[in-house]
Amino acid sequence: MSVGRRTFLRLAGASAVGAVAVACSPGRGTSPSVPPARPPATPSTSASPPPSGPPDWDALRGKLSGGLVLPGDGGFDTAKRGYNPLFDGHTPAAVVKCVSAEDVQACVTAAARRLPIAARGGGHSYAGYSVPDRGLVLDLGKMSTVDVQGDRVVVGAGARLKDVYAALGRAGRSLPAGSCPSVGIAGLTLGGGIGVLTRKYGLTCDHLESARIVTADGKLRTASAQSEQDLFWALRGGGGGNFGVVTSFTFRTDPAPSVTTFSLKFPSGAADDVLNAWQSWVSAAPRELWSTLTISGGSPVQCRVGGCYVGGSAALAPLLNDLVSRSGATPTSRSARGMGYAAAMDYFSGSEDRESFVASSRIITEPVDGGKITELASGRSGTDLLIDSLGGAVSDVAPTETAFWHRKAIASVQVYARATAGNRDAVTRSVGEVVAGLATAGARGGYVNYIDPDLPDWATAYYGDNAARLKQVAKTYDPDGVFRFAQGVAA
Fold this sequence. Notes:
By secondary structure, the chain is α+β, with helices and mostly antiparallel strands. The protein folds into 3 domains: 5-21 and 258-463, Vanillyl-alcohol Oxidase, Chain A, domain 3 (3-Layer(aba) Sandwich), CATH 3.40.462; 57-139, 2-Layer Sandwich (Uridine Diphospho-n-acetylenolpyruvylglucosamine Reductase, domain 2), CATH 3.30.43; 146-255 and 465-477, Uridine Diphospho-n-acetylenolpyruvylglucosamine Reductase, domain 3, CATH 3.30.465. Helices cover 27% and strands 21% of the residues. It is built from 15 helices and 18 strands. Strand 5 and strand 6 (152-156) form a beta hairpin. Helix 9 packs across helix 10. The longest helix has 17 residues, at 424-440. It is globular. The N and C termini lie far apart (44 Å). Residues 25-58 are annotated as: Disordered. Pfam families: BBE (PF08031), FAD_binding_4 (PF01565). Belongs to the oxygen-dependent FAD-linked oxidoreductase family. This is FAD-binding oxidoreductase.
């Protein structure tokens, strides 16, 4: 049996799950050094007006190694689908099943300035941006090779986490990344990459050494600490879809360890005290420990804490005892279990089934009042607040060293609500109320990988003081807004 992170904390008596990577020397989790921002090159703009009409689809098809699917073609309804069924009504102009960087180049050259272009890896965009109406979808699913090369791994942009973890597990290596098996490595990395390895090894983007990317001019570039340095800075946390279409990533990896995973279920009515205690507890905990706290809305509100520890149960036990002591609440169930990295990631990943939901996020930078947060969840059945610890290696990197801004945060908060086509509007309003309430309680900011079209002042929320530099990078590499979308940096 395996369960996803969104569900395992809600299951009474669930076994502890999680995964982490082995210890490394201090600073190993930091990103390669990038020179300070320089005055960027003056963007060039096209002198000619945008071309009119759609691309010549027949001509484009002749240049592709993969297939091109148009509305009305067999399989189009399947080819266009993202992860969230709420966006099944989106109708792109075409879907190209890219198999090479050359396919991506041909698509960008043919469609630039004619219609929206969106790359799709896992298709998990929370706002449905990877399936744009009347746009061109570049399906990268066939570009999914995972090539482990010693302590490095080269990953195709269409690979999903299950592909990456399977290959790394066979090689005895690990990479800090997310927990959902069908999430694409590209979107995860480009937004930063929060996951169960975060406190020990940092974000996914902190392990990125280089990326191959097709920019708006159709050129295939390599962004790294040695080349296209401003672009490399932006790709580490600046959000997917903003600067071009990444075709492959090269990451640094670490040896895969054994870990201890844990789960504690607390009684109804304890969420206020547990959240207050959890914030101070996780801030003081060794970076070997990563934890997530789930507050499940309803009447009454339910609370569960889980996570993982790099090390054995003997070292973990006093840390869990400390949390219980701080909270003053006795868990109704408590479990801990040792397992290897590959088995843990497989167990932790859970189902790949599509899910209908509405979601958003906030960031906890300073401790918030647990009572105010619990009150927001009261009576909201079907809504979870998934609070993931940050700190540790994440905070070793300065907020301006990469585009990921929330380096000093305690935790991210994902507001996740199950929805249907029939109640979508009501659920969206409810999520908005929770998000606004979190901001009032002191949890501001947001995580771009939980992108929300209704989030107020979203550019500042996602990118903080890095927003201005990101906009300049977008103007330099995409002066005509080829990759522009509603919450794009260049919008």
